[in-house]
Design goal:
Layout lengths: L1 H11 L12 H9 L3 H8 L3 H15 L12 H14 L3 H8 L3 H23 L5 H15 L4 E11 L18 E8 L5 E9 L4 H7 L1 H8 L8 E2 L8 E2 L2 E3 L10 E2 L9 H27 L11 H22 L27 H14 L8 H4 L1
Helix pairs in contact: 4-5, 4-7, 5-7, 6-7, 7-12, 9-10, 11-13
């Protein structure tokens, strides 16, 4: 009994030589990790220079005043708590125990810091593309992925969440889980250019696009897209519009290409589907990179949909921040494995206009003639 009393006294009233603040994980482990750059980067997904730069940007927004009644958690520790939570995807209770702060405190810190990250970085690392930006993206798709006049790859990703109370089937998706949708437009270098977060999981990708600001702007011609342009070495085909590429869950539109449906396709249509899928897989690969960096995507997130939306937006802009400030790895220049390039068969709408059908037919003819690449027949 005497041993038990001593144990309970030890855990309730620690008697360490260090002050309470120094017993936190930030003041021990994190400071030790700064001596090892590789481990620091694995822990935060940012290297030391990126962490310090990010802290400089968001620090003024997340700093709290010191008063006579409290000593606030520093901006650096608040940023560390948020990044570790996004990176590990663990419950806030585990982070609270590690950092020796209250669970409620962690619950307030994460969405607040995530919002500050998004607001401080989005204007520089995910700005709304202008005409010159779209033209640069199109040139990179032509050079790296052999798809001219392509402005980006579009797809949606379901972010699993705990079922919100009294939400019915709004968040229940076709996979049998509860989720919100991350709709993204990705450029040829695996960078997010447009994201729309928060749509109900029950919606299809096409429905999510139609209800998003980006989808409405695309439909109404308010995206400042470049003018129609000739395809390389195919002047006889005339000027063709710039397009986004997507899978069969999206509708066929003048500026949005999807594969030819069905499995009994001619060689020409199979080649088109391969070339489109080769460019479209960029967004799938980007989602894979995002999930590998921020493991919260591999778990069911047990917080409100509003807070999940803030965390998702923070990880997307951090993804761009990392790639822009650290340079592009060699993996960016490698094409996806041809085995995985067949289009995913999903049920989608097909209310295509004649103009959109004509654009797809023109591209299909181009990819089988002037725009052919040597290996496409082996794959298609």
């Amino acid at each position: 009994m005497h041993v038990k009393q001593q144990f309970h006294k030890l855990i309730s009233q620690p008697n360490f030589a260090d002050p309470p603040a120094a017993r936190r994980e930030y003041h021990r482990l994190v400071q030790e990790l700064r001596l090892d750059g590789e481990r620091f980067q694995r822990y935060f997904r940012l290297d030391r220079a990126q962490f310090d730069e990010l802290l400089t940007r968001v620090g003024p927004r997340i700093t709290r005043l010191e008063t006579n009644w409290r000593s606030p958690i520093s901006a650096a520790e608040r940023l560390a708590i948020c990044l570790v939570t996004l990176q590990l995807g663990t419950h806030t209770g585990s982070i609270a125990y590690s950092y020796r702060v209250g669970i409620t405190t962690v619950g307030y810190i994460i969405p607040e810091v995530a919002t500050a990250i998004w607001e401080c970085l989005v204007s520089e690392f995910m700005p709304v593309p202008k005409k010159e930006d779209w033209m640069t993206i199109a040139e990179e798709f032509r050079q790296h992925w052999n798809f001219p006049n392509c402005l980006g790859s579009i797809d949606g990703k379901h972010v699993n969440i705990q079922a919100p109370s009294k939400s019915g089937s709004l968040y229940f998706n076709y996979k049998g889980t509860y989720s919100i949708v991350l709709l993204a437009v990705v450029d040829a270098r695996y960078r997010f250019r447009v994201v729309d977060v928060g749509a109900y999981g029950r919606r299809s990708d096409g429905g999510t696009l139609a209800s998003s600001k980006f989808g409405k702007a695309l439909q109404n011609g308010r995206l400042d897209l470049p003018e129609d342009r000739l395809l390389p070495e195919a002047e006889h085909l005339g000027c063709q519009p710039h397009v986004f590429v997507a899978d069969e869950a999206f509708p066929l539109q003048r500026h949005l290409m999807r594969p030819f449906p069905g499995s009994n396709l001619s060689r020409r249509n199979r080649v088109f589907n391969y070339r489109l899928s080769r460019a479209r897989m960029i967004v799938e690969n980007t989602f894979g990179i995002l999930s590998a960096q921020w493991r919260m995507y591999r778990r069911v997130i047990g917080t409100s949909p509003g807070n999940v939306e803030k965390c998702v937006k923070a990880t997307c802009v951090l993804h761009n921040f990392i790639r822009w400030t650290a340079g592009s790895p060699a993996a960016e220049r490698q094409a996806p494995d041809p085995v995985d390039l067949q289009p995913i068969r999903r049920v989608g709408t097909n209310n295509a206009t004649r103009e959109a059908i004509h654009v797809r037919e023109t591209l299909a003819s181009y990819f089988s003639a002037e725009g052919a690449v040597p290996w496409q027949d082996n794959v298609a």
